[in-house]
Amino acid sequence: MADQKSNPLILYTGVAVSVVGVVLSTLLLCKHGFSDLCTSSLGCSIDGVDGCKELGQSSLSKVGPFPIAIFGLLYYAFLTAAFLLQSIRPRGELAALLLYTTIVGLVVDAVLGYINFTQILVPCILCAYTYLITLALFVLALTHKLQSFRDNSPMADVVKESGTPAVAGALLTFLLAGILYLMGAPQKSKAVDGPIDEAMVPGVLADFAALKSVEFNEQGLKSREGSENGYIVVHKFADFLCPHCLHASELLQEAMKRWPGRIQVYYRHFPLDSTCNPLLTGAPQKPYGDWRCNGAQAAICAGDHPGFAGFYHGVFDLQNQRLPITLEHLERLSVNAGIPWNQLRTCMASQATQQKLMRDIDDAKKIDIHSTPTLIVNGKLLSPGVPDRKWFFQLLDSLVYEKEGNAAFDEYRARKK
């Protein structure tokens, strides 16, 4: 193919913008795959929650075992090289490839953007910046390609140059769109059909015994669900705007149905904002800090009433409804739970409630909790985050077997018939 005329400024700008994409993708890869190294929430926090980290902990940030960010890094690295090569020796076929590569990027980003802003409570802002980078690269590639139509080359040559990349680009676009659509589709929970194999119990219990031991004084704690006689005691530290805390609550509710009468859960509070949590530095994030504190204070007060469990889970369900934790919504939840709103509202503003909240925060400090959710089971500190469902149920099965033996497993199987 003949060389193509080009505007160096467009191509050099393409190189610079692509490099910015490489930098952003590298940051995202670090946040999603190595969050312990990349702890800064700069450019990610929009409501006191690091949306980039939250997305990284979700299955929506991966294609199989690979973070999507690594594909973004390779994508922008390729465009950097392509723009640079085109600036050195312009070619019509490379200009076409640049254009269709950016079109593929726009399609992929459209799907990722839909997932980011509709399927995740706290959007990943760095991800949104990469969408803008892809759009800018498309404009640059399109402008560059249109120059070929100003040349004196026959239209047949233009079509010939563009045909192969067009077909390849279209096929790749549809392929990636299909993959990303499947990623966005709801995923079924991992099946856990029955109790753990008895032969696996000793190993599970040995690993559990090796976890860090912590101790709490449970006297006076009223924010509890489950059986008073439950011998599996769980403490869950959470924040009401934390998506993974919602998932942890759903997991615990499922666990209590799996082993009724054996589990009791203390719902503890660690609001992720300095509005009511002095362990957190920085200015309060309005209005999100108020919502976090509203939820914690209201749940503490609801612990004095029989409708506590329904109220507590109702506050978390506001996430699913994408509603803020305002007094208006709390009043509706309290009425539905049979809790007098006037009493609850007065209690929320009391000094006694703040002291109870500080008790939770102090307990979290003692065991060095910095993120939510964090679960403690029978005095053993689990890794931060939502436990793997299969592993968690196997742990509970093992603790039940240790206490009751095969009789409990027989009872479980009888219930499932």
Automatic annotation (TrEMBL):
Signal peptide: none annotated. One of its GO terms (cellular component) is membrane. InterPro entries: Thioredoxin-like_fold (IPR012336), Thioredoxin-like_sf (IPR036249), VKOR (IPR012932), VKOR_sf (IPR038354). Gene3D superfamilies: Glutaredoxin, VKOR domain. Residues 7-145 form the Vitamin K epoxide reductase domain. Keywords: Disulfide bond, Membrane, Oxidoreductase, Quinone, Redox-active center, Transmembrane, Transmembrane helix. It holds the Pfam family Thioredoxin_4. This is Thioredoxin domain-containing protein. It comes from Leptonema illini.
